[in-house]
Amino acid sequence: MTRAFPNIAKCLKNFIARLTAYLKLLFQGNTVDVLPALAGPVLNLGGGGPDVEAAIQWMINQVRGTGRVNVVVLRTYGSDDYDHLIYSMSGVNSVQTLIVSNRQDANRDDIVQKILNADVVFFAGGDQCQYIRSWKDTKLEAAVASVYSRGGAVGGTSAGAMIMSDFVYDACAREDPVETKDALDDPYENITFSYNFFKWQHLQGTVIDTHFDTRKRMGRIMAFIARQIQDGVCQTALGIAVSEETSVVVDKYGKAKVMGRNAAYFVLGDHPPEICKPRTPLTYYDYKIWRVPSGDTFDLNNPPARGYYYRSVKRGRFDADPY
């Protein structure tokens, strides 16, 4: 009988190991690479505040076809609280959060490989300046671009959405982000931009802003637009302004749809500003503004020829309520 006890102990140990592995798999998802054929690419721009879960599910559904997808959440600090939310969604094979807070880690082969194996990448909210300083011109950036180029989904919320525009207000020149009054009074003071980060197909010529309605940011996105034209970056610039608890999702054809509780605004500057220079209030006549409520769409490649209204800024002041 004494000889049987080691065998019993060994069997019990194996059983516990298998049970632990099973529970870990059940919690985290199947970490075996699935790499299904993807049906995108698509984008999801979240306006901050409570996430629009339907928009995250939308981008998963858009790219997965009949398969299941692997999701990676990227951030420079914080927790893995997205893992529980996203793993409970339909069509998800696995999800993991990677906290990548410096350029050295953004070039690590093991981190890059996890992103390359993903089908959906989601940028959590945070600090867009930190994102740019830690990730721009790294292997991480190239890996995210690879997910998109093979038909995957890339999304983000708040700062995580702002870094996806062509012209990124990076907030690197000041401790607190600039708000409307200061931006209109001086569109240059401590207002800096980053370029050539993520170059998404349907977001060329855009600048994205978030927390739009709650923080009344129409004036600052107007200043951001005027700066691009004045500085010779482009001849026209489109602002994509997303309210809290709202997302703008973009399909592979460039058709944007607003989802969530509130509206999004598309603000076009299509001519040079009358006055845009340092230490001087902004003057810019006739921005075209489309207010797009939840459920409606906007073609990013061919903005509609109707449905907009005009608003102007003269010596740093609106000519009428811009909302």
TrEMBL record:
CDD domains: GAT1_cyanophycinase. Its EC number is 3.4.15.6. This is Cyanophycinase. Belongs to the peptidase S51 family. Exopeptidase that catalyzes the hydrolytic cleavage of multi-L-arginyl-poly-L-aspartic acid (cyanophycin; a water-insoluble reserve polymer) into aspartate-arginine dipeptides. Keywords: Hydrolase, Protease, Serine protease. It is an enzyme of class 3 (hydrolase). The keyword Transferase does not apply. The keyword Protease applies. InterPro entries: Class_I_gatase-like (IPR029062), Peptidase_S51 (IPR005320), Peptidase_S51_cyanophycinase (IPR011811). It catalyses: [L-4-(L-arginin-2-N-yl)aspartate](n) + H2O = [L-4-(L-arginin-2-N-yl)aspartate](n-1) + L-4-(L-arginin-2-N-yl)aspartate. SUPFAM superfamilies: Class I glutamine amidotransferase-like.
